[in-house]
Amino acid sequence: MAELENEGSESGSEKERRGIQSIEAGGQLLLALGAQGRPMPLRELAKAADMAPGKAHPYLVSFAKLGLVTQEASTGYYWLGPTAMQLGLVTLRMLNPVREATPFAEQLARETGHSVALSVWGNQGPTIVYLFDAIYPLHTNIRTGTVMSLAGTATGRLFAAYLPAKLIEESLLEDERRLGPDIATPTERGDFQGMLNEVRKHGVSRSINNPTPGVSSFAAPVFDYSGNIVLGITLMGRSRSFDTDWTGLQAKAAKACGVEVSKRLGHQTLRAG
After folding, report:
1. Which residues form the HTH iclR-type domain (predicted)?
2. Residues 6+ positions from 110 with CB-CB distance below 8 Å
3. Contact residues for 77 (Cβ-Cβ < 8 A; gap 6+)
4. Which of 91, 103, 154, 156 could be disulfide-bonded to 219 (CB atoms 3.0-4.6 Å)?
5. Measured distance CA(153)–CA(192) in Å, rounded
6. What is the pTM of this model?
């Protein structure tokens, strides 16, 4: 009776939040396979899911019947099955990088108080597709639809660092003609490559008081499931109140935002082994 009374007194919101513990427990095995990114023996997989092998095995048998996992005949190792692969592919086809990034970019702008721009690689180069204004007046020429200089902006150098070199070489030739010499400042080839190496080293691109005096920025990459850059997230603000250190708060915030959106798009760093 006490159990019935407790169940009856449970609020509607608590009922909605209550899940099925056995599904949640078994799901840890699927999450462990995805995190490791490789076929695994039962004992190792169970350990990764923080579960005893004897408890993990029945879950894996049921998952195999559904096609969520498969067991290799030669090794006995477990791996994601055809159903899991199909579900993943359907999800990836439906993903829109800008749509996925928008709430994260908005949160980044709100938490830092600075301006945040989303950019994609368009027909003419890095193009701003969404802009969240800072909580204070920030005087820049950046608007939705603005094409950014490859060499002269943090956003441009971000794409240049991660896109194929041949594509970037061709775009650099068009940079000054397309944007004009006042925006596309010529850069020595050696200096430009040094900038790109710096971007890859730190995982973000940086501009200090350039191309707009008094405005600094960090641009972070967003990668998809195949490891290709599909989006740039640029955090920018007044230089006097903007931490421009490579390991400072603004750099970390921009990079963390890019990592979270990348995860949403299926990108992950696979563990060795």
Report:
1. 20-82
2. none
3. 39, 40, 41, 71
4. 154
5. 11
6. 0.67
